[in-house]
Amino acid sequence: MKNEEYIIKNTLRLTKKYDDGLSKYATKNSQCIKVKNTIKPHDEFDIRWPYEEDIDRILYCKSYQRYVDKTQALSFFRNAHISKRSIHVQWVSRIARQIGRGLNLNLDLLEAIALGHDLGHAPYGHIGEKVLNELLQEKGFGYFCHNANSVRNILFLEREGIGYNVSLQVLDGILCHNGEMLSKKYVPDLDKNVAQFWQEYEDCWHQEGTSLKIRPMTLEGCVVRISDVISYIGKDIEDAITVGIIERSDLPESITQVIGNDNKSIINKLIGDLVIHSYQKPYLRFSSEVFDALSALLDFLTTHVHHHPILLQENIKLERMIKELYHVYYDQLVSGEDSPICRYVHKMLPTYQKNDPALIVSDCISGMTDSYVLSEYQRLFLPIHHDEKL
Question: Which terminus of the chain is less hemmed in, N or C, by CB atoms within 10 Å?
């Protein structure tokens, strides 16, 4: 017991020393707030720092394990080197930690937000998200965005509905990480409290466009938000070149002269520019020249890659597949017939069954991997070929 007491005291001392060495704009470990009232067993010993606990809970949750079979922008190309969500969140974490080290921010908080920011992402990327959003509106429930669904996964769906007790600052960073929103300046909402967080979370489900308006409560949350952009923009370009959608020479020279024409140079330029112009400031910002080039590259990516005719044609098929699967699951759930969706519900806490059926089906499908959606669609809608007589 004496050894444990010594280690605990030493851990507290090291945590305080770490906090004291952080930027005055960083989030301190001593500021960590848990959103659930849970009591650890009296004899449970834990050497981890506050946000380290969150990292581990995210790393070992089932939603994190499903990252490996969820793709990014190019869902239907068979290529081992096309980005998967599992490697994307690691890249976001690495970039966020590089920026955080340059600005002397809390690296554990950065890592936790980055690794957890896509836990609730639908299968087949933003196509799956778009379809679920349309279906929840059709059913009169509200709206779907993967930001809020990531919070829902870790808090209310993991461990058959028990969830994990994750810090407010981590959950808020996940909720506000929207990587589709580019800003020249990222200013944290320092006055945000627990009540405001919960209100923003609920508004994401029931007020259209909320996820586009809310701001992180920490500078670390702002770092992850821009790291998400930095992580995917150059890699989506590389993936598009790999599968032949575009060629490197297609990139406008006005952009490449400023931030480069490959993933490595783009990342280096964006991180360096951001750290230089944000150092010892209560916000993040790019230089005007780099921000303009980044904005132009995002426009190019949207037009020439994400809206490429081949992708749009295939995305129609993905949309139809997810919609048909959703409607079958919804009907099975409402009727109570023995089915995968009903078995999913019965595994959860009894209180889970009180949720709106539209949301329950969204929970189930958003948690699926790409290949599982495909196999379920085949099981439900395609004939089974038998080699023997029935």
Answer: C
Asked if 19 and 30 count as a contact pair (C-beta separation under 8 A), the reply is: yes
Q: How far apart are CA 138 and CA 322, in angstroms?
A: 14
Contact indicator for 182, 298 with CB cutoff of 8 Å: yes
- Sole residue written with tokens 């939603």: 63
Q: Which two tokens stand for residue 92?
A: 């976001």
CA pair distance 92, 241, nearest whole angstrom: 21
Task: Write down the mean pLDDT value for the chain.
Answer: 91
Q: Which two tokens stand for residue 238?
A: 């590389």
Question: From residue 31, how far is each of 51, 66, 93, 124, 173 by CA, in Å?
Answer: 10, 31, 21, 37, 15
Instruction: Say how many C-beta atoms besides its own lie within 10 A of residue 167's C-beta.
Output: 23
Residue 84 DSSP symbol? B
Q: Which residues contact 349 (CB under 8 A, 6 or more apart)?
A: 160, 161, 162
Residue 130's pLDDT is 95
Residue with tokens 């196509």: 127
Q: Are 217 and 197 in contact (CB under 8 A)?
A: yes
Instruction: Please tell me the predicted confidence (pLDDT) of residue 151.
Output: 98
pLDDT of residue 277: 98
pLDDT reported for residue 189: 97
Q: What residue ranges define each of the domains in the chain, with the CATH number in brackets?
A: 49-307 (1.10.3210.10), 311-381 (no CATH)
* Rounded-to-integer distance, Cα 26 and Cα 109, Å: 10
